[in-house]
Amino acid sequence: MRPAGTGAAGLTLGVTMDGPEPVRLNPHSLALLRGGPLTALKVAALALLIEGSAHPARRGTLRTSGVATRSGSPLEKAVHVSLHRRPAGIRDLLEQPRVRTSLAELRAELIAAGLLRGFPRGRTRAARRTLDDLRAQLPLPGGREGLSTEDILYAVALHGDEALTVLAPRFAQDAGLLGRGGAADGERSSPNPGGGGHGAAGAAF
Question: Is 7 in contact with 42 (CB distance < 8 Å)?
């Protein structure tokens, strides 16, 4: 699933504009770059589900499971804290201050890396080339067998709803990530990106 040189800290991409160090993308920043804020939130929600700290609630919403998140991701922590107050749909989370701040920080990092433009908003040529390269390196998986949690998150970050329906169809439907609640993500819908628990990893899929 991962190309040579990829570690837990994120995909290593030789797309820096002026500096000597390659850009490193984690699943959330890749999701924001590829599909926009909604896609980044779907990846964060999926990560919380896999670790058992969130699960689907009524009417296509999410809620915490009472299990503290072990994630070091600011976006996942922001989503988890927001869900402590009450169940929320994925689009409702976009209005939460902590979530908005975390997304803004991710976007600022992508701008600094030369992958997003501040104004007018949009991807740079380097970003488009990077996404094309990653699609060639990391095709859509046919199933979850043999995939780590990181692999699954990267697949959803890069392939969006197609990957969700293959890798987590039950969760995607029950949590409102697809259809009217989540809408379709991806480059066509986000041309200017940036804008009782389940203890087992696969229990809610």
Answer: no
Tell me the per-residue pLDDT of 128-152, one tens digit each, with 9 for 90 and over.
999 999 999 899 999 999 999 999 9
- The tokens describing 107, both together, are 């976007």
C-alpha 120/C-alpha 87 separation (Å) is 35
d(CA 161, CA 124): 23
Going by C-alpha positions, the residue among 175, 176, 140, 145 that lies closest to residue 158 is 140
How many Å separate Cα 62 from the centre of its chain? 15
Q: What number of residues does the chain have?
A: 205
Tokens of 106: 């991710």
d(CA 90, CA 132): 27
Phi and psi at residue 7, to the nearest 5°: -130, -175
